[in-house]
């Protein structure tokens, strides 16, 4: 199979996921706007952020992290041999996931106070009401872990069956549910004697249920409804659990990192957790739309080719995904870097979120953006090791990178402040992706030219010129004191000018034909 054909397949599936994910990310920004407008970067927003981070961290293991990477290649291999056994494996894993996450959720409810104290320090806990709200939110949102884990399992299955749009659109429904709760519930909760911030917890639960249930009709339509042979523990489910066990070590290291950085953030200044969170949301916008879509497509196609012993085809898929990641992420990084403060101002600065919050969020965002291209590569590289049956490698690399990040943050945060946590995340991701590339080169027996192509250099040069051009355009067009719609229009014109510059520079550097091919296929 040639590079052209692999490009077409990866583009087609990535585009479907990207369109759906774009809708979700836009609604995610609206959700964050609603939170910022209603609650601001306040103590109660910090309380929700910390409470939501606890089940969200566990989701990294049971949904978007080790479990997905372990399940998709195994499920693909079983389905290629015996579709009936694959159906049994799906529902065996669904039962196991529900059982394991259900027990963990129950423990979170019972020991919510102890868990919250683990994630916070005496500065945060000095406000008894804020501490009590955080504990209550943890108890409300604990079962979210069950719902979102099953949703991720169904999404992985549908992607393997080459169904990409609906599963990728399901998180958009989660955001819609949360937005509705943010605007409809606070006054009612206040009337009933509860703090309005609990509306966020209710929204998380409702959104998680919708995100899971909406995927079931497609599974049934494809003939993948509950059916046998059903064995809770089978040979194939043991393979998945073994790989998840290996991944758990890496996830545990990641969560230790999250705990330490959260404690460091709460020890700096009130609002730091929220500033970092809002900045990370904007940072994740291009990652969620572009990198996650490309990575999800790559995992499905790479796994299928590798399980069929088609090494050249698998490497072509990985090469295509690597190139597309740079082609799309570099201009996104350039535009967001040039328009960082304007983006925060337009998206968040209203209601309880003021100019000071914009300035602080900007400090975090610009340091997160340093690692954006490598974050995209990490999303592609890490699951590839699971398809290669080498799950221990990314885990060891993650542990080492996280260890370096913890040392960096613990040493520098007391000296320089909360923004060091964003820079540490970026430097850690750069180290992680570089080490993964080294190991992939050896495993796949590919040359360094696979990673250091002239085409990649052209993209980087185009990105630098795009940044400079967009920055100049925004300084000329954008005025913070203008009316909102005028600012939004000038913002869009600045971004469009930068995007045109990116395309023109690529054309001048000789990549016009490939760029046109990508646009036509999309």
UniProtKB/TrEMBL annotation:
Location (main, coarse): membrane
InterPro entries: Lipid_II_flippase_MurJ/MviN, MurJ
Entry's transmembrane regions: 89-113, 133-156, 163-185, 197-220, 278-300, 321-340, 367-388, 395-413, 419-444, 456-478, 484-510
Compartments reported by the entry: Cell inner membrane; Cell membrane
Gene Ontology CC: one annotated term: plasma membrane
Protein name: Probable lipid II flippase MurJ
Pathway as given in its UniProt record: Cell wall biogenesis; peptidoglycan biosynthesis
Membrane topology recorded in Swiss-Prot or TrEMBL: Multi-pass membrane protein
UniProt source species: Halobacteriovorax marinus (strain ATCC BAA-682 / DSM 15412 / SJ)
UniProt-recorded Gene Ontology molecular function terms: lipid-linked peptidoglycan transporter activity
Keyword Repeat on entry: no
Pfam families (alphabetical): MurJ
Source species, domain of life: Bacteria
Lineage: Bacteria, Pseudomonadati, Bdellovibrionota, Bacteriovoracia, Bacteriovoracales
PANTHER family, per database record: LIPID II FLIPPASE MURJ
Key word Nucleus present: no
């Amino acid at each position: 199979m040639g590079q052209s054909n692999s490009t077409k397949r990866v583009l087609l599936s990535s585009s479907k996921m990207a369109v759906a994910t774009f809708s979700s990310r836009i609604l995610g920004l609206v959700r964050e706007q609603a939170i910022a407008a209603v609650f601001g970067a306040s103590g109660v927003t910090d309380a929700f952020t910390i409470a939501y981070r606890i089940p969200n961290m566990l989701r990294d293991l049971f949904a978007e992290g080790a479990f997905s990477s372990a399940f998709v290649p195994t499920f693909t291999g079983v389905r290629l041999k015996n579709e009936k056994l694959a159906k049994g494996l799906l529902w065996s894993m669904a039962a196991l996931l529900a059982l394991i996450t259900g027990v963990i959720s129950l423990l979170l409810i019972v020991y919510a106070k102890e868990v919250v104290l683990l994630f916070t320090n005496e500065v945060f806990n000095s406000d008894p009401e804020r501490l009590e709200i955080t504990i209550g939110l943890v108890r409300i949102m604990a079962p979210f872990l069950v719902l979102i884990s099953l949703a991720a399992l169904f999404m992985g299955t549908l992607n393997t069956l080459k169904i990409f749009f609906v599963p990728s659109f399901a998180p958009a429904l989660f955001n819609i549910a949360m937005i509705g709760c943010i605007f409809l519930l606070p006054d009612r909760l206040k009337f009933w004697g509860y703090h309005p911030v609990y509306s966020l917890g209710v929204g998380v639960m409702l959104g998680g249920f919708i995100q899971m249930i909406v995927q079931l009709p497609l599974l049934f339509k494809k003939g993948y409804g509950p059916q046998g042979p059903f064995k809770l523990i089978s040979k194939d489910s043991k393979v998945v659990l073994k790989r998840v066990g290996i991944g758990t070590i890496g996830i545990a290291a990641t969560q230790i990192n999250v705990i330490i950085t959260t404690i460091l953030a709460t020890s700096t200044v009130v609002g730091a957790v929220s500033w970092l969170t809002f900045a990370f949301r904007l940072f994740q916008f291009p990652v969620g739309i572009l990198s996650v879509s490309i990575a999800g497509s790559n995992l499905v196609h790479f796994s299928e080719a590798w399980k069929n012993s088609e090494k050249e085809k698998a490497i072509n898929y990985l090469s295509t995904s690597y190139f597309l990641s740079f082609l799309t992420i570099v201009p996104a990084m350039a535009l967001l870097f040039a328009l960082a403060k304007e983006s925060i101002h337009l998206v968040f600065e209203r209601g309880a979120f003021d100019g000071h919050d914009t300035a602080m969020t900007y400090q975090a965002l610009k340091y997160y953006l340093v690692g954006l291209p490598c974050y995209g590569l990490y999303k592609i590289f890490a699951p590839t090791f699971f398809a290669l049956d080498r799950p221990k490698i990314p885990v060891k690399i993650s542990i080492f990178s996280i260890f370096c990040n913890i040392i960096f943050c613990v040493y520098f945060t007391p000296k320089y402040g909360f923004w060091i946590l964003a820079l540490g995340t970026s430097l850690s991701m750069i180290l992680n992706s570089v080490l993964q590339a080294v190991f992939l080169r050896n495993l796949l027996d590919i040359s360094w030219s696979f990673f250091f192509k002239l085409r990649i250099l052209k993209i980087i040069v185009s990105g630098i010129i795009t940044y400079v051009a967009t920055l100049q355009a925004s300084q000329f067009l954008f005025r913070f004191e203008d009316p909102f719609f005028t600012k939004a229009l000038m913002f869009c014109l600045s971004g469009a000018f930068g995007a045109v510059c990116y395309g023109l520079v690529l054309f001048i550097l000789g990549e016009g034909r490939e760029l046109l091919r990508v646009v036509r296929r999309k």
